[in-house]
Each structure stands twice: as structure tokens, then as C-alpha cells.
Amino acid sequence: MEAGIMRRLLVAANWKMNGDMSSNAALLAAFKAGFNGSADTAIFPPAVYIPQLADSLKGSAIAYGVQNIHFEEKGAFTGETNLAMAQDFGCQYILVGHSERRELFGETNAIVAKKVVAVLAAGLIPMLCIGETLEQREAGVTEQICKEQIDAVLTQVGIKAFEKIVIAYEPVWAIGTGKTASPEQAQDVHSFIRQLLAAEDAAVAAKTRILYGGSVKASSAQALFGQPDIDGGLVGGASLMAEEFVAICNAAQG
Ligand code: PGA
Any idea what DSSP says for residue 163? Predict the structure, then answer.
């Protein structure tokens, strides 16, 4: 990290399609009681539970948002949620381009870029997920894939917008598999991503938060968050276990 530049760490929970009213309430209560406020945090529950989070987190510094959004303002898009709806309930962050959306729901780089444009236009913070599959890593194209995924957005929004965008580097082979990237493996890619941004604008690159995601656990969080270009984490499975998630958040200092 360049001297004098401090990026506040951010730890986000991606609940995916899990939870119910009572398990959510228990998780939120334990989190509010255990989290020491050492970093920024955001929770992404299934969209129908956003009102529950809005209610439970009122007055707290814990942010929340939806796991997916449509880029159109409104209309005949059955099953979709728009940004005004997310804003109605106080969402601050929007997860965009998660690998499960890309793989299972056909989201291309072009669709992801449209979503980032829409989220920024609404004044919310996109958390842009990128990352390579195992096949791509083994083929030695990790950097190329990350570059393509970033470039698709960069060409639409310009480099200045990356002051607002949070990037989550999530190697697909590490998601939900228990195989965390080593701190060094993750740092290598994070540093590459930051250099990509720095080639456009060094000041912006120094401010952009780049989170790591993929089987983050309490036991691996500290070493990951200690890397110079890792600015927090996006946590799936472990975010459904109150003690684990509290420990991960509390390991993020600064
Ligand atoms: P995981 O999920 O922590 O369960 O690997 C991370 C994610 O998909 O964001």
C-alpha cells in the first residue's frame, strides 16, 4: 500500500439462498452483540428478508443490500428487483456479478457492466465480483480473465467510478469448496487488479477496496486481511455461523 493511503476494511456476508425469519433474527442478534466495529460490514440476505434487516439494523452501522438487481428502472421483468425497491428499504450495497449469477443464471460481462452502471446511477455501491474458474487457473489465464471482467465495467463507467466500486476477487474454485486461496495466491491477484486500475489512475487505485472471497473462515481471515492489497472479505458459508462471522469481522482491523 502506498504511504499515507488507508483503506478501511470491509467484510460482507453473502447469505445466498439460505435462512428463515427466525434463523436470521438469531444471526443478526449474535452479530450485533459480538461485532466490535473494527471494520465496515454489509450483509446480503435473500431479497425478501431485506425488510427484516432494515428493521433489525436500524440505527446500527451495519449495512445491507441485495444479492442481485435488474438494471432496468421498472416494467415487465417477472421475478426481478429494481434499484428503487432496494433503496426504499435502505440498501447501500448491491452485489453484482457473483460467479453463481454468471454461471447458473447466464450473466455475461456485458450484463454485469449494465448493472454496475445502474447501481452507480442510483447512488449505491456496487460490489463487483470477479474471478477465474479452476480450469482457467490451471490454463494460466487467471489474470486475463480478471482483466476482461474489470475491463467490461471500466469501459462503461470510467476509472473515476472505481472510487465507489468495491471489487470482490472470488476465485470460483475456492467458493463453497473449503479450498481457500493462500494469502500469497490471493495477494498476487489483488496486486494485479490494483495495478490494472493504477495504470488508469493511481490515486483511484489506491482507494479502491478489493475484497477476497472463497471459503474465508475465522482461521484464515487474519492472514488474508494482513496482505497489503486485501481490504476485507466476502463471506458465504461462514457468514451463516454467528461465531465464525463475528470472529472474521473482528479480525478485520482498520
Ligand atoms: P464461500 O462463499 O465463503 O461459501 O466460499 C463466498 C461467496 O460466494 O461469496
Answer: G
- Quote the Cα angle for 64-247-7, to 5°: 60
Please list the residues that pair with 42 across neighbouring strands: 12, 63
- Tell me which residue has cell 450483509: 43
Catalytic residue among 70, 98, 107, 244: 98
Q: Is 107 a catalytic residue?
A: no
Which of 107, 132, 170, 244 is flagged as catalytic?
A: 170
How far, in Å, CA of 252 to CA of 232, rounded? 7
Sign of CA dihedral 151, 7, 27, 47: negative
The whole-number pLDDT of residue 1 equals 46
Q: What is the pLDDT of residue 178?
A: 87
Active site residue 98: yes
- Contact (Cβ atoms closer than 8 angstroms) between residue 91 and residue 66: yes
Could you tell me the pTM of the whole model?
0.96
Q: What residues of the chain score a pLDDT lower than 70?
A: 1-5
The pLDDT, as a whole number, for residue 180 is: 87
**Distance from the CA of 3 to the center of ligand 1, in angstroms?**
31
